[in-house]
Design goal:
By secondary structure, the chain is an alpha/beta fold. About 35% of the residues lie in helices and about 15% in strands. The chain has a six-stranded parallel sheet, sandwiched between helices. Helix 8 crosses helix 9 and helix 10 runs parallel beside helix 11. The longest helix is centred in the first third of the chain and has 15 residues. The model has no long low-confidence stretch (mean pLDDT about 95).
């Protein structure tokens, strides 16, 4: 069963109707300043289509994890303000989620205008494990739309959550898949169902445990699996290397050993770093040097140094795999890219991906933040996902509740 599309909703007519849209405005903030507006920009096209068609648009979104309490540092207001700066439509912000401010603002909303509700996670029912609590919150959200409302899910970054504004609301209103969600799902289907080979997967980030199910599911699908970031050191330890003070998940060593063995049987190469940038300590001013992966504890500043980036030989090797690929999926930085001394591995991978002719997907989260902070533009890549967690769960083979809800 397939979802109804945004085009179907527009064809049915939305002028004068309230349309509840789940958007992804979960942006990083420095105080009240949005430091990466990628998700706001990604939300704009659907909101613009609806506003231009005369809908009264009510946006639901979350920011951070306020855990069901009103915490000013998690207010949606800065993200909504950035939306207003970028948009060609009027944007107002309610001071609550389903309270008097939201109800009054929704009732007086003009055709073609957009109302952003406060952080939906200020209400504990949004994320409740109790179905009845989520359903009641969803009913209160649906009531904001009056008698002829509709619901559009355009928040791919939240579709892996069984939350009220993502899952339960879809049973209460005529529901449609937003263009952003549709694009993301189609991209991920390409990666999982019919990738053009060679298919290279680049995984980084700090923990192996975060990527276990992805590795497990991709071993029989990818041709080459390139492992960088902090998670690489558990793989190196599994191969018998001494890794000094580098990040290690001791309880995952056996799993990594099993993956290395199974990959050979399945014809998938797992490539781990051959050299590493080792630092005396974690910090921008740390002494550091490049060492072979089997020499980490021979650093000039002692045996407790920690690896904070892949080395230049590894970075170039990874780049060569990416260059020769026809499909590439990348999730997770190669090192501590926020510190210039440990950003070169991530930069080299990003540059190779940007220069590649392959169908390339950057899997959201830290990877998206990394490529933008290193000066790359979104259109340097085939696709930058807005949902790191959702992308990974799809690649694990899991059903995404927010997507499934639209197919009921």
């Amino acid at each position: 069963m397939s979802s109804h599309t945004l085009d179907e909703l527009l064809a049915a007519g939305v002028s004068g109707r309230h349309v509840l849209v789940r958007s992804d405005l979960n942006v990083p903030l420095d105080g009240s300043t949005v430091t990466d507006d990628g998700r706001v920009r990604a939300s704009l096209p659907v909101l613009t289509k609806l506003a231009e068609a005369g809908a009264k648009v009510i946006v639901m979104a979350h920011l951070g994890r306020p855990k069901g309490t009103v915490d000013p540092k998690y207010s949606i207001a800065p993200a909504a303000a950035r939306l207003g700066e970028l948009a060609d439509f009027d944007v107002t912000v309610a001071s609550d989620v389903v309270g008097p401010s939201a109800r009054e603002a929704a009732a007086s909303l003009a055709d073609g205008a957009v109302l952003v509700l406060e952080n939906v996670r200020y209400d504990a029912r949004e994320t409740s494990k109790v179905d009845a609590e989520r359903e009641q919150f969803a009913r209160e959200l649906a009531e904001l739309t009056g008698e002829n409302g509709a619901y559009v899910n355009d928040a791919f970054g939240a579709v892996h959550r069984k939350h009220a504004s993502v899952y339960d609301i879809a049973a209460l209103l005529p529901s449609y898949q937003g263009d952003l969600v549709a694009t993301e799902v189609n991209v991920l289907k390409t990666l999982t169902e019919a990738p053009k080979r060679p298919y290279v997967v680049v995984l980084g980030g700090s923990k192996v445990s975060d990527k276990l199910a992805v590795i497990d599911n991709l071993l029989g699908k990818a041709d080459h699996l390139l492992i960088g970031g902090g998670m690489a050191f558990t793989f190196l330890k599994a191969q018998g290397y001494a890794i000094g003070g580098s990040l290690l998940e001791e309880d995952q060593i056996d799993t990594c050993t099993e993956y290395l063995s199974r990959a050979k049987e399945l014809g998938c190469d797992i490539i781990v770093p051959s050299d590493v940038v080792v630092a005396e300590k974690f910090g921008a001013d740390a002494a550091h040097e490049v060492l072979a992966a089997d020499k980490i504890e021979e650093a000039s500043f002692g045996s407790s140094g920690l690896g904070l980036d892949i080395g230049p030989k590894t970075a170039e090797l990874f780049a060569s795999y990416i260059t020769s690929a026809n499909t590439v999926f990348w999730n997770g930085p190669m090192g501590v890219f926020e510190i210039p001394a440990f950003a070169e591995g991530t930069r080299t991978v990003a540059r190779a991906l940007a220069d590649s002719e392959a169908f390339s997907v950057v899997g959201g989260g830290d990877s998206a933040a990394a490529v933008r902070s290193l000066g790359f533009a979104d259109d340097d890549f085939g696709h930058i996902s807005t949902g790191g967690g959702a992308s990974l769960e799809y690649l694990e083979g899991k059903t995404l509740p927010g997507v499934a809800a639209l197919e009921r």
